[in-house]
Design goal:
The complex is a heterotrimer.
Chain A: H1 10-17, H2 21-32, H3 36-45, E1 53-59, H4 65-78, E2 83-89, E3 98-100, E4 115-121, H5 126-142, E5 147-153, H6 157-163, E6 168-173, H7 188-191, E7 194-197, H8 205-216, E8 228-230, H9 239-255, H10 260-283, H11 287-297, H12 303-314
Helix pairs in contact in A: 1-2, 2-3, 2-5, 4-9, 5-6, 5-10, 11-12
Chain B: E1 9-13, H1 22-33, E2 37-40, H2 47-56, E3 61-66, H3 74-83, E4 91-95, H4 102-108, E5 112-114, H5 120-131
Parallel strand pairs in B: 1-2, 1-3, 3-4, 4-5
Helix pairs in contact in B: 2-3
Chain C: H1 7-23, E1 31-32, E2 38-39, H2 53-57, H3 73-76, E3 80-81, E4 84-85, H4 90-103, E5 107-110, H5 114-117, H6 140-146, E6 156-160, H7 166-177, E7 186-190, H8 194-199, H9 209-226, E8 230-231, E9 233-236, H10 238-242, H11 247-268, H12 272-275, E10 279-285, H13 289-311, E11 322-327, H14 339-353, E12 358-360, H15 373-388, H16 403-425, H17 429-434, H18 437-454, H19 483-499, H20 502-517, H21 523-532, H22 537-548
Parallel strand pairs in C: 3-12, 4-5, 5-6, 6-7, 7-8, 9-10, 10-11, 11-12
Antiparallel strand pairs in C: 1-2
The chains are: A alpha/beta, B alpha/beta, C alpha/beta.
């Protein structure tokens, strides 16, 4: 589709930085489509990026994520914060199309000029999506929002990568019928800065909370002790506590210099680098690499040394 | 640079009082299966909300699903779009629109009206073509 | 050879099979009904035999209830002709209502304007949307005009307005004004099933789910005590089927909703035999003739068995699956609209043979707007013709004992029970709807049905086959309300609002708001009080949305 009706000239950038919605919306489209205009915009706004707090929400389908995000936005608004929301939904692997339905649950914010919501499809490039999402976050940041919420459906590792865009990651689960601690598969507990048990009015809620607490606090104490918070998104209960926890975590990572666009970018590069190296090592037919693997298989080389050698090789391999 | 490789983005929504959404769900699925990205809302959207949605999501086409007499509110939407600088945004209306009242919609600037029983391929092709026509997001005066 | 066959019979069967193959050239393809059951060309005692009569059929009015809930059914008393009537202003409605009563309609059911259904007063919505789908009734005065010279207090009533039941509240207030005893009102709170509005249709969807739950329970408690002839519960299968669920799924989901409501009542402390007799159902009847009849027979049989088993119901009235049916508008077409007269007749036959208690037949122009006078008259005539000329009321459960019908009934029962169990496993209907499971099932069936139409597997006459070029004759005249009358009505409403004693209005609204927040107060009683104090429908709804929670969408994309 032709979108050459507008150009990212100085006047455009100025209006973007002032927070003009139409200008922001079209800029996001350029960025999402990875066009030259998008690159121009990104280049022009880099120095204005860095003041927004970025919060990621992820969790399995059915956990009430959209409803919770909507309630969280409401809480933020009552605290006089302006909010940008990036809502990510998966694209169909067959057709490449997508139904973006998160707005159904966010109706109360549509006419609030202090909230801007953008639905984004994963477009089958989840690794790449992280990059696009991060850039969309940057442009929303530059246009002046206090808080930016990134919401994705967490069904697999890739979706958690999108959450890496955030300074504070909130993982949502629900008390299930039976063992629905699906959310608590390996990996989630690692990434959660805050764990939420939604639908807290359900009978198993307290049980789920204590199970999560014991799993989270096994092992040595970490810098940040991930809290487990109960919420009922439909009534708003627990959402104030959630907002407080986000603030607390935000302060902690800010002090530790783990927040902001530079830190975001580092995490992204780490994630994309690991992806790239993994693919290379797994798919390469390089002789030197084969020898390393055979040595380990014969018991002649230990894994730690093998990995170090493979990483070095990884830089040079095809 | 034109980005014709990116999927068309369509807003599927309902204004007015009716709440039946069987038709709009089916069309949303058709469009998704044809490779389009569909921002799907619930029924009873205010006119102002539709304008905001169209801008924020920077959609290529607005699709209104109308049963009962909700189509009679479409001219208001068309006016609101013009006022907001979206006068070139293509709008299609599908659902139960009596033959005698189709003209009201076309006169108001609606690009296409679909009746019950409309062919799936035709719906998809028409919306796809409209999505490619491109539109500006700011009024010339803005 | 089946045990009830003689050697010569089995020989005849083999011959038939051969000749069938020959005559169809081996080209007979499998056919399936909407619920997915395969339909064979012939059914015989191999499929169902009269040995099963006592277990599967029995007698009307007795377990297993298959043949009907009353001993005499339509033979003793015809089904009620309950036409949904609605037309713009109360005065216009009154004229049409009296015409319908003259034509043979025996019960009152107001088709309300969409603005009303959504909880608004006429002065709160764009005027072009007013009065096009039904009548605008905003206060007791409007209802009085609607029922001018109509002794409504002596007729069977259907108050279409669940949460918060203002239409019934207006009826109660009006009855008092006319010197009649409201406790004697007979009728049903039509579509009081709030769950169905969260699942599909959504028209009556106003309060939050917990708010709706309390509203219904208080309503049941109030009518149990004060209105012995009133049915407060009308569980709706129509929306679910119109949204695309198969007939078997629809019956399963509807029964599951009813079971949920029954459980809620028991939790409230009500005795099953006190509320079950007042449970009614409201279904769509599609044009899949035999499937619909089987759906109703299976549902009726299942309901009786389930309430006995799950709730220990003892009163025979608790076992009765009372239902109203409406011919399905989803089967009617815009193309060649006169065909719809035939369709409606067939749907009506299905409903009557299925054992309904009350029937609404659609006008042939249903796909376009609320019916013109002609269409409305033909719809009522259809019912009269079926009864008087076709003799449809002469025999109870006329298809009972048919090898096909009994096999199909058993098969439908199996599918329906399957759906009920799935919903049980999900924690009951309330939980299954909250999680979106039910909505997804419905959406899948809707899409599957559409695909069959799209690829021509399902023929719709005039639409994907037997088409004709559209011509002037096809253009049905529309019943559009007179804008001047609508504008006058809105003006009168505005005057009404400003002319009231504002401090009394304020007090009444405060009382209502307080009741909304105090679960010890019966909220339906509070609504009646507000209606009697002159508060309008829109004001009542706005107040309760505020206090009891606004409805939020539960549908998933």
């Amino acid at each position: 589709m032709a979108r050459s009706a507008h150009k990212p000239d100085d006047a455009w950038i100025e209006r973007l930085l002032k927070g003009e919605r139409s200008v922001l919306a079209r800029s996001i489209t350029w960025i999402e489509n990875q066009t030259a205009d998008g690159a121009t915009v990104l280049g022009a706004i880099q120095k204005n990026v860095g003041s927004a707090v970025v919060v990621g929400f992820t969790g399995p389908p059915g956990a009430g994520k959209s409803t919770l995000v909507s309630a969280y936005v409401r809480e933020l608004r009552s605290r006089d914060k302006t909010v940008g929301v990036v809502a990510v939904d998966p694209s169909s692997p067959f057709s490449g199309g997508a139904i973006l339905g998160d707005r159904i649950r966010m109706g109360e914010h549509t006419n609030d000029s202090g909230v801007f919501v953008r639905s984004v499809a994963s477009r089958g490039h989840l690794g790449g999506l992280s990059l696009t999402a991060a850039r969309i976050v940057d442009v929303m940041d530059a246009s002046g929002f206090d808080v930016i919420v990134v919401e994705t459906v967490g069904a697999g590792q890739s979706e958690y990568e999108v959450a890496e865009v955030a300074d504070t990651k909130v993982v949502i689960s629900t008390p299930g019928y039976g063992d629905d601690i699906q959310a608590v598969k390996a990996g989630i507990l690692e990434i959660a800065d805050i764990m939420v048990v939604n639908k807290a009015d359900m009978p198993q809620a307290d049980q789920t909370v204590s199970q999560l607490n014991s799993m989270l606090h096994m092992g040595p104490a970490k810098e940040w002790a991930t809290p487990v918070i109960k919420t009922t998104a439909t009534t708003g209960e627990g959402v104030g506590e959630l907002a407080d926890a986000v603030d607390e975590h935000g302060a902690a990572v800010h002090d530790a210099h783990k927040a902001g666009p530079v830190a975001r970018t580092r995490r992204l590069i780490a994630s994309m680098a690991s992806d790239r190296i993994r693919k290379r090592i797994a798919q390469s037919s390089d002789d030197a690499l084969n020898q390393i693997c055979e040595s380990v298989a014969r018991g002649e080389l230990d894994f730690d040394t093998a990995v170090d050698q493979a990483i070095k090789l990884g830089g040079d391999m095809e | 640079m034109d980005d014709r490789s990116s999927p068309p983005k369509v807003l599927m929504t309902k204004i007015g009082l009716d709440g039946h959404d069987r038709g709009s769900r089916i069309v949303a699925t058709y469009l998704r299966d044809a490779g389009m990205e569909v921002v799907y809302t619930g029924p009873w959207q205010e006119i102002d909300s539709v304008v905001t949605l169209a801008i924020e999501e920077d959609v290529d086409v607005i699709g209104i699903s109308s049963l009962a007499t909700d189509h009679l509110v479409v001219p208001r939407l068309m006016k609101a779009l013009v006022k907001a600088g979206l006068d070139t945004m293509p709008v299609v209306v599908g659902g139960i629109i009596p033959d005698g009242e189709e003209a009201v919609l076309y006169d108001a600037g609606v690009a296409k009206v679909f009746h019950p029983g409309a062919d799936r391929d035709q719906i998809v092709n028409d919306i796809g073509s409209l999505a490619n026509s491109g539109h500006s997001i700011l009024a010339p005066s803005q | 050879m089946a045990k009830h066959e003689s050697e010569s019979t089995s020989g005849k069967r083999a011959i038939w099979e051969q000749e069938f193959e020959k005559q169809t050239g081996g080209g007979d393809e499998s056919r399936f009904n909407r619920s997915g059951i395969e339909i064979k060309p012939l059914y015989t005692p191999d499929d169902w035999s009269t040995e099963q009569y006592d277990n599967s059929l029995g007698y009307p009015g007795q377990m297993p209830m298959t043949r009907g809930i009353y001993p005499s059914m339509h033979r003793g008393r015809s089904w009620t002709q309950t036409q949904l009537v609605g037309l713009s202003t109360p005065e216009q409605y009154n004229k049409r209502l009296r015409e319908m009563i003259d034509a043979g309609v025996s019960a009152i059911s107001i088709a309300s304007c969409n603005s009303f259904l959504r909880g608004h007063d006429a002065d709160e919505v764009p005027p072009e949307l007013l009065g096009t789908c039904g009548t605008i009734i905003n206060n007791v005065e409007n209802l009085d005009a609607a029922f001018k010279d109509v002794p409504f207090e002596n007729m069977t009533l259907s108050a279409g307005d669940p949460t918060p039941f203002t239409q019934l509240a207006f009826m109660i207030a009006l009855a008092k004004r006319r010197g009649a005893d409201p406790s004697q009102l007979r009728g049903t709170s039509n579509q009081s099933d709030y769950i169905s509005h969260y699942v599909a249709n959504h028209m009556f969807f106003r309060l939050s789910l917990p708010g709706s739950r309390r509203m219904l329970l208080d309503h049941i408690a109030y009518t149990n005590e004060h209105m012995p002839f009133w049915n407060p519960v009308s569980v709706v299968g129509q929306h679910i089927q119109q949204a695309g669920a198969t007939p078997a799924e629809t019956m399963g989901m509807t029964i599951s909703s009813a079971l949920q409501y029954a459980e809620d009542c028991i939790e409230r402390g009500l005795d099953p035999d006190s509320f079950l007799p007042r449970f009614t159902f409201f279904f769509d009847v599609s044009i899949s003739l035999f499937e619909e009849i089987a759906k109703f027979r299976a549902g009726r049989r299942l309901w009786a068995r389930l309430v006995q088993k799950r709730f220990g119901a003892k009163d025979p009235r608790s076992l009765r699956f009372k239902f109203h049916a409406q011919t399905s508008g989803a089967d009617l077409t815009r193309q060649q609209p006169m065909n719809n007269i035939a369709r409606v007749a067939i749907q009506a036959i299905a409903g009557v043979m299925g054992g309904l208690q009350s029937l609404h037949t659609d006008g042939y122009d249903e796909a376009l707007s609320s019916p013109t006078q002609d269409a409305a008259r033909i719809a009522v005539s259809t019912q009269n013709i079926l009864r008087e000329e076709a003799g449809l009321a002469d025999v109870i459960d006329p298809l009972g004992g048919s090898y096909y019908m009994e096999t199909l009934t058993d098969q439908m029962e199996e599918l329906i029970l399957d759906v009920i169990h799935r919903i049980d496993d999900a924690g009951g209907m309330y939980a299954a709807v909250e999680s979106g499971m039910v909505q997804r099932m419905i959406g899948d069936s809707a899409f599957a049905h559409q695909q069959k139409i799209d690829n021509g597997e399902q023929t719709i006459v005039g639409v994907n086959a037997y088409q004709s070029p559209e011509n002037e004759d096809d253009r049905v005249s529309l019943a559009r309300p007179d804008r001047e009358l609508i504008d006058a009505h809105v003006a009168r409403l505005r005057t009404y609002k400003t002319n009231r004693d504002q401090s009394a209005v304020r007090r009444a609204l405060d009382d209502l708001a307080r009741a909304g927040n105090d679960t010890d107060i019966n909220i339906f009683k509070a609504v009646i009080d507000a209606a009697e104090a002159g508060i309008t429908h829109g004001e009542i709804c706005a107040c309760l949305r505020q206090e009891m929670g606004d409805g939020r969408p539960l549908v998933a994309a």
